[in-house]
Amino acid sequence: MHSILLIAKREYLEQIRGRAFRMTTILVPAAFAFIMGIGYLSSIGLGSHKHVAIAADDAALANDIRRQMLGEKDAKATVDVVAPASDADRAELLKKVQSKAIDGYLSIETQSGLENGLPVAKYISQSSGDFTTTGRLRDDLNNAIVSQRLKDGGATQSDADAVNKGVKIATYTVKKDGTVVKSNAIASFYKGYVMAILLSMTTVMYGLNVARSIIQEKTSRIFEVMLSISKPGDLLSGKLIGVGLVGLTQILIWVIAAGAIVASPLAAAQMTGDFAVHFSWVEGVLFPVYFVLGYFLYSSLFAGLAATCETEQELQMYTPLAAVPIWLSFAMIMLIINDSNSFWSVAISFFPPCTPIIMFLRMGSEIPPAWQFAVSIVLMILSIWGVLWLSSRLYRVGILMYGKRATLPEILRWVRYS
Asked: Which residues constitute the domain of residue 81?
């Protein structure tokens, strides 16, 4: 135990004092915030600066669509109306689209080719991926048709606009004690999403740190000196504990910094209404638990792989394997957020490599039952024990093997030798 603590202390102090620790502690959250900020700013007013034309048989309908488009909150579009439009008018608009004089035009036919009594509409543009503008035009066209039908039935324009605005549904969540509190699906989604990304990023990053450390010490032959005072199992245990403590230290720094920012008067004023985010004590307790379990699972796996590799380039060939559970977890994000208690959501949360990410995605929507937390943690502990058992045997032999590529039969012999 004494040698394990010494090695853990060495690994911890060596990384804490390093420049890389200071840089990643500052730059990783800064880069993460910068990327999210760019994504948010770039989505503001998306598709609202277009120059479009409306070619329709019905001038009243075309002008009503234009009114709808220019009446939107972030309306910055330029909308031309050609109505009633002839075939020559539509051909001229097509030439303008080709020459990029306009971004596109909406063609509406109300006198022929009706579908179920509704106009036939086509949007022509040079971009096949402009789904934002297409969505805006579809909504405005539907609202204009509803508005016309209501006015034909005797409704006023204000009544028609009120109907088109629709009814907003406030969402609430029932807690276990029976109290009903207001909830926000978007805020809950992003809360679970950010925590899942943070968890996956840190566990894999520090797991790879363990692997790189083993490769560096293996190539520098420092292991030959360290093995004279300690057993291979103690070396591996001390390395895992030391690097894991570095990860917890970094996360603690991020949590304290985030808490200070959230507690500031400016942030407190902003994080209300649709931006309100609430963290439960369950999430606060389970985050370090799942971090530690995820870290030990990935780091013990990478430790065994690193012992079979000769260089960091060879190790990098295996790193995509670590991303597979992460891709699988985020590929199911829509299913999990919409139905966190479905069979597949629960099943994948019991798959140890995906458990930390999936559990926090599920908690973003609804706190799972306590027995599911217990089962997932027990399965992770058993998986860690199995991976450590295999990795420790590969580690004992592999750290002293030089100049020979480890094939599968060779690795199986290492396991038997140990």
From this structure: 51-165
